[in-house]
Amino acid sequence: MTATAPGPQEFVHPALFYSGKQQYVTGTVPFVLEGLAKEEPVAVAAPPDRLQLIKDQLGDQARRVHFVDMTQAGRNPGRIIPGVLRQFADAHTGGRVRIIGEPIWPGRSAVEYPACVQHEALINEAFTGRAVTILCPYDVDGLDQGVLRDAWATHPVVVAEGSETASAAYSPEAVVARYNQALPVPPAAQATSFEGSGQLTAVREFAVREGERLGLEGARLQDLQLAVAELTTNSVVHGAGDGTLRIWAEDKQVVCEVQDAGRLTDPLAGRRPPAPERPGGRGLLLVNHVADLVRIHIGEAGTTIRFYIGR
Amino acid sequence: MYAKGEIGVSTRPMWQEALGQLSRRSESCLYVEMSQLTFIDVAGVTDLVMTARSLSGHRLLVLDQPPFQVPRILDLFWPGLGGIEVAA
Questions:
Q1: Alpha-carbon torsion A80, A153, A130, A297, what sign?
Q2: What is the pLDDT at residue A271?
Q3: Domain coordinates in residue numbering, chain B
Q4: So what's the pLDDT on residue A131?
Q5: Distance separating alpha carbons of residues A1 and A165, to the nearest angstrom
Q6: Cα(B35)–Cα(A229) distance, rounded to whole angstroms?
Q7: Which of A47, A66, A242, B38 has the most other CB atoms within 10 Å of its CB?
Q8: Is B10 exposed, middle or buried, given 0-12, 13-18 or 19+ CB atoms closer than 10 A?
Q9: Contact A216, A311 (CB under 8 A)
Q10: A35 lies in the same domain as A165
């Protein structure tokens, strides 16, 4: 697919624009087969119907490929880098690793999309200098023109109908900044402020009470509790020492956010899997793992981290 | 060892100190009785993992009736970790 072989430590991140099943297959299957022929580890993370298209073409060879349902593993775009891409790449060091990653499909909601496109942009920084190729398919029939325009900005190269074009619009940092959008709070939100470590238990219990009232139960209520504990602890330890928690319901989800006056300066915070022996750095990563969606806004007044849990 | 109440940023120094003392004991199975623990955060579970990793030979850290956060966090960040066992 690529005209020139990438350097040994070069990250390669093309978008694949496809129209219809046939173009999907011709854009992805040779990429998989080329990897298998070179004995490279290959993973495909895409919606289930797309996985099936590739499996059908691969036949017996499919056994050598790691398939991931992106609508589950990548439901929250914030956990795709640690939970899907790096999990596979880090388990196969030594040679080039090949991944098909389709994080944006028709049906991604307007509230999910900014997190999706920021994820696509941040992949570039997360894999700089690594022998990894990640091909990202985009369904040109089902996705808006704006989504396709953004894909030109988040990928250095775009492949369409068999030909490859270097993107003059490539600008991942600008995409991360553009989608760093203020997060309006609905009037129905219940809020409480907290200050210092002595109030962490009270704010967590407040969130659990409200979460339960809004219809969370069982494991989801427990995940809310865990996420709240990590975010409020971060506000006390790494932020300004105090913050505000808000919680409400939207459709089938409970939405909760923690706002503080600190500034989150590391764009990859919560997206790096720490080495198993590393003692810290798992708080925001945990939130990414347990939530269905995480949105972050970094503004003049501080940082808001909002997460969604299905009820 | 018995853990009671909750493990968070305020109680963590005490928790780490207690785990350090426990790991210096000579028994092959080190028990942490957790049924009276109401909450433990990621950092607190990380301390358990670091303690288990520090044990030499075939020594084992056994967590008795831990709160839900313990298996959830272990599954997420240290699936299949040796040296630590959860007794329900």
A1: negative
A2: 97
A3: 2-87
A4: 96
A5: 12
A6: 20
A7: A47
A8: middle
A9: yes
A10: yes
**Number of domains forming the structure of chain A:** 2
Q: CB distance from B31 to chain A under 8 Å?
A: no
Does any domain span residue A278? yes
Task: Determine the residue among A87, A199, A200 to mutate to test chain B binding: the one whose Cβ has the most chain B Cβ atoms within 10 Å.
Answer: A200
pLDDT at A3: 52
**What is the residue range of A238's domain?**
190-310
Residues of B in contact with A204 (CB under 8 A): 39
**What is the model's pLDDT at position A92?**
96
Q: Are A268 and A125 in contact (CB under 8 A)?
A: yes
Q: Kindly give the parts of chain A with pLDDT less than 70.
A: 1-4
Are residues A162 and A25 part of one domain? yes
- CATH number assigned to the domain comprising residue A259: 3.30.565.10
| C-alpha to C-alpha distance for B88 and B76, rounded to whole angstroms | 18
Between strands B2-7 and A253-260, the pairing is: unpaired
Pick the CATH number of B2-87 from 3.30.70.260, 3.90.580.10, 3.30.750.24, 1.10.3720.10: 3.30.750.24
Residue by residue, pLDDT tens for chain B (88 residues) are 999 999 999 999 999 999 999 999 989 999 999 999 999 999 999 999 999 999 988 899 999 999 999 999 999 999 988 889 998 7
> What CA–CA distance (Å, rounded) separates A186 from A248?
8
A22 touches chain B (CB under 8 A): no
- In whole angstroms, give the CA distance from residue A166 to residue A153: 11
Q: Report the C-alpha dihedral over residues A185, A222, A281, B33, rounded to 10 degrees.
A: 150
Neighbours of A212 (CB within 10 A): 13
Structure-token pair, residue A308: 């969604």
Within this chain, do residues A165 and A26 fall inside the same structural domain, yes or no? yes
- Within-domain flag for A138: yes
User: Hey, what amino acid is at A160?
Assistant: A
A80 and A195 part of one domain: no
Beginning with the edge strand found earlier in the chain, give each strand of the sheet holding A242-250 in spatial order: A190-195, A242-250, A253-260, A302-310, A293-299
Q: Are B38 and B5 in contact (CB under 8 A)?
A: yes
Cβ contacts of B77 on chain A, cutoff 8 Å: 276, 282, 286
- If you search the block for the tokens 């909002």, which residue do you land on? A306
Of A178, A206, A240, which closes a domain? A178
Cβ of A279 within 8 Å of Cβ of B46? The answer is yes
Question: Strand A14-18 to strand A132-139: parallel, antiparallel, or no bridges (unpaired)?
Answer: parallel
